[in-house]
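B., you asked whether I could sanity-check this one before it goes into the benchmark set. Here's the sequence:
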Amino acid sequence: MNKRLAVALTMSGLLAGATACGAPAQTAPASATPSAAATTAAPAGWELDPAAGAQRIKAAGLDILTAEGTAEHYHAHLDVLVDGKAVTVPAEIGFSFGADGQPNGISALHTHDTSGVIHIEAPTPGLKYTLGQVLSEWGVLDGKDATGAPHSGTGGWTAYVNGAKQNAPVSTVVLKAHDEVVLSFGTAPSPVPSSYDFPAGL
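And here's what the prediction gave me:
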């Protein structure tokens, strides 16, 4: 396996210690969790299915890479809220896995842990990455269930970027460096989170 891919896949247990970005593996700091939100541990329907990782990366219009890209490197943060309660953003969104359950590829858009930090580490500079691509790689809000459910469509969901409500469809929200992105359904917390305390090195 490519050495840099092994570093990129730290969270999968191939290596221990730092993530590929050079910062320690993180869980969400208390300051990153909305004060009105009680964090849930991946309730039914929000879990990540590793077996379909490669299929979901392709569905998001992204390539499966053998190493994290270095031409573009930045991070955003995502909070998902249902009636003000936070849903855990899984680790290893944007990873593909082999038959042995071990990671064998990664996309330019991915997560390493459950902090909600979205990593953009791309081999080509200047491309735009969207919230819709994150949802596709995660495998949620795909229109299969009733409104508000993990596999509903995105209708009825609202996106906020740095505290500002977005009027465009949530799937079109473009991720930018150090954005705090909130995806909310139902009753939103007040105030809506408008920033995130990124760990040193991110």
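One thing to flag: The longest strand covers residues 72-82. Otherwise nothing jumped out at me.
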